[in-house]
Specification:
Structural class: mainly beta
CATH class: Mainly Beta
Largest sheet: 8 strands, antiparallel, barrel
Strand order of the largest sheet: 1-5-6-8-9-10-11-12
Shape: elongated
Number of strands: 12
Radius of gyration: 21 Å
CATH topology: Porin
Helix content: under 10%
Oligomer: single chain
């Protein structure tokens, strides 16, 4: 919790500098669509029908109540902003999240990555900007349990209850090519690498590669 508060404080500080920076240089706001991948741990979790409900288990055919934990994949939605303090150097922040929860054995989960980066633009031309990013942030895996119930045949309801989350520090690296469609609107394909120590508690590797297509708008003098 303390670590998350520190990252949020840094994000608020970053956003507070945007009005000043916009008068000095270029500011980008962007929305992204992409994915992040990691393999499964191969472990299992007992479902609610087991005497050892939500305990760990071995995924074998002789244990029908043991459900395997998933790999990380699927659609991620991204939000970001950056400030180019000069033609070739800037700072930025971005976050990506799975907007729809996925199954994690008998549980559901939502994955979030967020990071704050230094940005190097070795190529910065009118139509094309090459960005190299490197920074730190966090990775949060939030878990919940969904249950359904009925009172007779008249009233049925489904509820989702949070059961906890796992928060990790992460190191982020990215490379993207920002292509301007006009003076302000751009599209940027970007490849990312998330190194998350102890991410093997939830998935099969501490390294999670990803890709994102960012669509954005630049304010200020490039």
């Amino acid at each position: 919790m303390k670590r998350t508060s520190r990252y949020l404080s840094l994000l608020f500080l970053f956003l507070a500098t945007i009005p000043f920076a916009a008068a000095q240089s270029a500011v980008d706001f962007q929305l992204g669509f992409g994915t992040v991948h990691d393999k499964s741990t191969g472990a299992g979790i007992e479902n609610q029908n087991s005497p050892n409900a939500f305990g760990t288990c071995l995924v074998v055919s002789t244990d029908p109540t043991c459900q395997q934990t998933p790999s990380l994949s699927g659609f991620f939605l991204g939000f970001g902003a950056d400030i180019m303090l000069s033609k070739h150097f800037g700072v930025g922040g971005e976050a990506s999240v799975t907007p729809v929860k996925r199954d994690y054995g008998p549980l559901s989960f939502r994955q979030t990555f967020y990071d704050f980066n230094a940005i190097l633009a070795p190529v910065n031309e009118k139509k094309v900007v090459v960005q190299l990013q490197g920074g730190i942030g966090g990775a949060k895996t939030g878990f919940s349990f969904t249950s359904s119930g009925c009172v007779g045949t008249a009233v049925c309801s489904t509820s989702s209850q949070p059961v906890g989350s796992s928060n990790h520090f992460q190191i982020h690296a990215g490379v993207g090519v920002q292509i301007y469609l006009n003076e302000h609107v751009f599209i940027r394909p970007q490849f990312d690498l998330h190194y998350v120590p102890s991410f093997t508690d939830q998935f099969g590797s501490n390294v999670a590669p990803g890709a994102m297509i960012w669509i954005g708008y630049t304010i200020g003098d490039r």
